[in-house]
């Protein structure tokens, strides 16, 4: 059984996408990031960066004690290795998948996240910051669109690279992006959106929370963090 410590954000959706695709039994442990549950001592034991998602595998492959993993990219690799799914054992395809996973973790996710912050949530609208991150998100969409020009998915077969990137494209309108400008990405996006596992994963998220994550009350919790929260 996988215990998934989760809230329905792009990084959280990555893991439910995998679990639904793989048919791996899991239980969601909600971590309401808008009320500060990510700072609870029990959660920090498995997620020292006070960010979800995190997992506890109560039945690891080695038969030993439960294993906890934080960081969504690391979780995807762990689950792929546990199940033997969505990460090829062929050296070339494996590292092709991993480099695109890291591309998402180091590029698309952080840049789109800053896009969301400055365009939607920052109390002061800074034109330079908004333009900076909207443009960088646009550039990254272009990189992905070019990659998908001659393949169905990012590395050919559906993989953890697709599961990592898709949730960050779901809010494309909020990011100031038009999928019509990226025809290969658009085709890929709708192919994933229509997968039964994707539908199930997003329905699980809706069952956990239907309210906006960011409100005036939660803004200080989400965006006012310093070292004091983890000391």
From TrEMBL:
Pfam families: GST_C (PF00043), GST_N (PF02798). PROSITE patterns: GST_CTER (PS50405), GST_NTER (PS50404). It comes from Aliidongia dinghuensis. Residues 1-87 form the GST N-terminal domain. It comes from the Bacteria. Residues 90-212 form the GST C-terminal domain. InterPro entries: Glutathione-S-Trfase_C-like, Glutathione-S-Trfase_C_sf, Glutathione_S-Trfase, Glutathione_S-Trfase_N, GST_C, Thioredoxin-like_sf. This is Thiol:disulfide oxidoreductase. Belongs to the GST superfamily.
